[in-house]
């Protein structure tokens, strides 16, 4: 997958906004004001960083070398998924969906209801 495909997929999700907070080197995707994805725009790194269930995060890292911990977020349950073609497109999309759903579930009830009304 390329960066534009990832961007389009993220923006099609309900209530998602994007911003460029890191000197135009990354796009941040948020839902309800909380980040669920960070897309690296630099030429040398083709990765997307996503929130992940703690147990799934460990399992993914053990079985897929193209998925690494994103310690720069200072949280153990963020993974960087490298889009170098070694992971199938469907898997990358399912990891984006997983991250989005985790963040939506963590939103206060009022924000969840607001998202449902916007459908």
Explain briefly what this protein structure is.
Helix content is 39%, strand content 25%. It has 119 residues and is an alpha+beta fold. The protein has one domain: Aspartate Aminotransferase, domain 1.
How does this model look, in words?
- By secondary structure, the protein is of the alpha+beta class.
- It has a single domain, classed as Aspartate Aminotransferase, domain 1 (Alpha-Beta Complex), CATH 3.90.1150.
- 39% of the residues lie in helices and 25% in strands.
- The radius of gyration is 14 Å and the shape is globular.
- The model has no long low-confidence stretch (mean pLDDT 85).
| Beta fraction | 25-35%
Number of strands: 6
Strand order of the largest sheet: 1-2-3-4-6-5
Largest pleated sheet: 6 strands, antiparallel
Q: Which class best fits the helix and strand makeup? A: alpha+beta
- Count of individual helical segments: 4
Shape category: globular
Q: C-alpha Rg, in Å?
A: 14 Å
Q: How helical, in percent, are the residues?
A: 25-40%
In whole angstroms, the N-to-C terminal distance is 27 Å
Q: What order do the SSEs take from the amino end to the carboxyl end, as H and E? A: HEEEEHEEHH
CATH class: Alpha Beta
What oligomeric state best describes the polypeptide chains here? single chain
CATH architecture: Alpha-Beta Complex
Q: Low-confidence stretches at least 5 residues in length (pLDDT < 50)?
A: none
CATH fold-type name: Aspartate Aminotransferase, domain 1
- How many separate domains make up the residues? 1
Average predicted local confidence, pLDDT: 85
């Amino acid at each position: 997958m390329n960066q534009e495909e990832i961007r389009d997929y993220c923006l099609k999700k309900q209530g998602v906004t994007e911003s460029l907070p890191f000197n135009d080197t990354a796009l941040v995707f948020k839902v309800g004001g909380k980040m669920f994805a960070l897309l690296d725009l630099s030429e040398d790194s083709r990765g997307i960083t996503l929130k992940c269930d703690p147990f799934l995060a460990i399992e993914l890292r053990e079985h897929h070398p193209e998925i690494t911990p994103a310690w720069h977020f200072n949280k153990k349950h963020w993974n960087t998924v490298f889009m170098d073609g070694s992971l199938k497109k469907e898997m990358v999309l399912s990891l984006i969906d997983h991250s989005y759903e985790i963040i939506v579930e963590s939103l206060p009830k009022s924000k969840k209801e607001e998202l449902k009304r916007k459908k």
